[in-house]
Structure formats: structure tokens, C-alpha cells
Amino acid sequence: MARSGLSKGDIQKVRDTLISQGQYPSVDAVRIALGNTGSKTTIHKYLKELQIEEAAKAAVKYTM
Q: Could you tell me the pTM of the whole model?
């Protein structure tokens, strides 16, 4: 049976939960929260994309 894999939305939910709990959302922390599933490469990729998106949103807010 093929696995569906992780989506960026899955990573974002876990990341936001960790942040709300006062924890740093490292690749390992996210992976543990997901039940030790997902590759570290995939998790890192999505965390980086989310970080870039938030930085872009902050830059737009700052310029307004």
C-alpha cells in the first residue's frame, strides 16, 4: 500500500502547534510530533518554504 506522504499543510499545523507551546519547530521536533514519520529532507523543505512565505508577508506588512 502506497503512503500518501506529508503535505505542506501537515507540516504547518505541527509547526504552529509547537510554536504555540513555546517550542522551537526544528526538523526533529516536527518529525517527533508527526509520530516519527516523514523524511527529514521533506520536513526541512517545507519548513524553509513556510519561513520564506512568512518573511515575505512580514516585508509586505512593513512596507505598508
A: 0.84
CB 30 within 8 A of CB 14: yes
Are 47 and 11 in contact by the 8 Å Cβ rule? The answer is: yes
Which residues are within 8 A (CB) of 31 and not within 5 positions of it... i.e. 6 or more apart?
37, 38, 40, 43
The grid coordinates listed for 28 are: 526533529
Neighbours of 17 (CB within 10 A): 13
Q: What is the pLDDT of residues 9-60, one digit of tens each?
A: 999 999 999 999 999 999 999 999 999 999 999 999 999 999 999 999 888 8
Cα separation of 2 and 22, whole Å? Answer: 35
Whether the Cβ atoms of residue 47 and residue 25 lie closer than 8 Å to each other: yes
Q: Which residue type does 54 have?
A: E
